Each structure stands twice: as structure tokens, then as C-alpha cells.
Amino acid sequence: MALQRAASVLATALVLTSILTGKAGCSPWACGVCYGVHGDRLPKPAEVVQLYKSKGITAIRLYEPDVQTLLALNGSNIGVLIDVADENVPRLASGAAQADLWVQLNIKRYYPGVSFRYIAVGNELAGAATRSILPAIKNLNAALAKAGIKGIKVSTAVKMDVLATSSPPSSAVFKDDYMKQIVALLGTTGAPLLVNVYPYFAYIGDQKNIDLNFSLFQPSSRVIKDNGLSYTNLFDAMVDAVYAALRSAKVQVPVVISESGWPSAGGVGASVANARTYNQNLINHVGKGTPSKSQPLETYVFAMFNENRKTGAETEKHFGLFNPDKSPVYPIKF
């Protein structure tokens, strides 16, 4: 097993070298793409999976189990991050039987043909809903063990406001006790904390103090100095704030970026040029890690398609890399 791990590390290092020299895109597991379905005339799941494969995208995030998509992923070797839909989290928290049923219906039925990597218990849950996260994670871990399934890590996807502060990065701590309890559990299971990181939203929220180029991984006069580290882009500063909060909580937990992206239309700073710049730079960057942790950072770009039925701000409809007809919104290389 140790030799297998060493070989895997070596293989990853070789692929990352090719990234840094510009000879290849993402390394295996370095970056995936989120598959949202709130759009009209989207391709059928089998076509979507083929599009992932044709573009060299090696991981996918699904926001809820879907039979046709999971069947299409069978044998594809595409790594899968699958969500428990927000509305189902309290049910899975309520007892072991509900978690057992969810695992039987949505995991075991497709395992091992589908390469499940993570289960996200909800996406950016807030308020009273956060009380269900910890028991649901525990119940799902027990259900996976009962079903004889190994290697799938159970976590939850959070946004940056779980931190009380994030600037400077080293000062960050978790705001609420429930997060400390969650990361303490993750520290015992080896599961990563899934974090949605959006420099775009930080930028539009404070354009006076946040430079656009700094947000886009572009050369900027803005540099954050913190405890001997220099931050030349906002993404790294945000991710290292999460690492600092984990250190403050006295746990060793990996971080996976479960969403990050930039809109191509619909609001301030949202343009095809900026979206292409951010997402391509993100893909090129994540293999290098961050100033405080120089190791590959698994990252899921949001999102595969523009979704015209999304609610909220107009920008929410324009995060896609591809149009519903599978034509690219802009060229990008993985």
C-alpha cells in the first residue's frame, strides 16, 4: 500500500510539472466542473458525460442524485462529488434507517462502476438547517460502512461566511460552534472540508478596496503581506484563511474547493473576457497550492453550462463554460 501511495504521489508530481511548464491542463483530480441542471434545452446526461471526457475533465459535482446521470457515469472513471439535496439533510439526520436507504438508492446501486469520491451533506446550509449537518454526516458514514463501501468521504459544502474574519488570512477563525464540531469530526474520518470560494463575490461587495486584477490572478499593485507570506491574488488569500481557521480549531483537515468561478454576463465585472481569464488562471493555478500550503488543491469550477432558470441575480445564469448546445462560451483548456 505504501508503494502504491508513493507511485501515486510521483505520478501526480509528474503531471503537475507538465502543468507548470504549460504542457498539459489539470492533473488527475486537480480540477473538475460542477454540473448544474437549471437550464432549458440542456444536453442529455450521456452527452454531458461524453463532453466531460472529450475535454479531459476528470471530476464532476452533482447537486443531487440523478439516475440517468449516474448511469451515464458508469465506467467513465470520472470522479464524483455528489450532494445530498439541502431539503433531504434533516431526514438523513433523523435516523440511521433514512441514511441507509439513501446510500442503497444513490450509492450502492451504482458502486463501484461510478467513481464516487465525496458526499456533500448540503450546500451552504445556514440557520437552523446547520443543526442537521453533523448527525447526517455521522449517519451516512455508518450507512456506508454497513453497506461495505470504502473510500467515499462524507463532508459538507460551506461558503466563506462560516469564518468570523478572513483578513488577514492568518487571523481567520470559525464563527460558530457547529463548524468546530464538524471539522473535528472530519479530522477523525479523513474527509476534506468542502469550501465554495468566489473572489467574484468578494470583489463586487467591496470594489473600493479589492482590485479587479487581484481577483483575476492578474498582475496587480495589490499584495497582501501576512506572517511572512505574500498574496498576489484573492483566491489564495481566501483559501489560506480557511486553512488558518482549521489550524485555530486544532484539526488537520484537507480542503477541497467545491465551487469557484466567474460569470460571463449579467453584472458588474461579469464579462466573457473576465470569466475566461479567471477560470483559465484558476485551472492553471490550483496545482501549485497556496502560499501556506504548496500542494495541489482539488477544485471544481462552477459550472458546466449556463443555466437560464437560476433565480437570484442575473449573473447566476451566466457562470457556464458551455452553452446548452455544447458550444463553448469561451475557449478554455483543462
From TrEMBL:
<dbReference type="Pfam" id="PF00332">
    <property type="entry name" value="Glyco_hydro_17"/>
</dbReference>
<dbReference type="GO" id="GO:0042973">
    <property type="term" value="F:glucan endo-1,3-beta-D-glucosidase activity"/>
</dbReference>
<dbReference type="InterPro" id="IPR000490">
    <property type="entry name" value="Glyco_hydro_17"/>
</dbReference>
<keyword id="KW-0326">Glycosidase</keyword>
<dbReference type="GO" id="GO:0005975">
    <property type="term" value="P:carbohydrate metabolic process"/>
</dbReference>
<dbReference type="InterPro" id="IPR044965">
    <property type="entry name" value="Glyco_hydro_17_plant"/>
</dbReference>
<comment type="similarity">
    <text>Belongs to the glycosyl hydrolase 17 family.</text>
</comment>
<protein>
    <submittedName>
        <fullName>Glucan endo-1,3-beta-glucosidase GII</fullName>
    </submittedName>
</protein>
<keyword id="KW-0378">Hydrolase</keyword>
<dbReference type="InterPro" id="IPR017853">
    <property type="entry name" value="GH"/>
</dbReference>
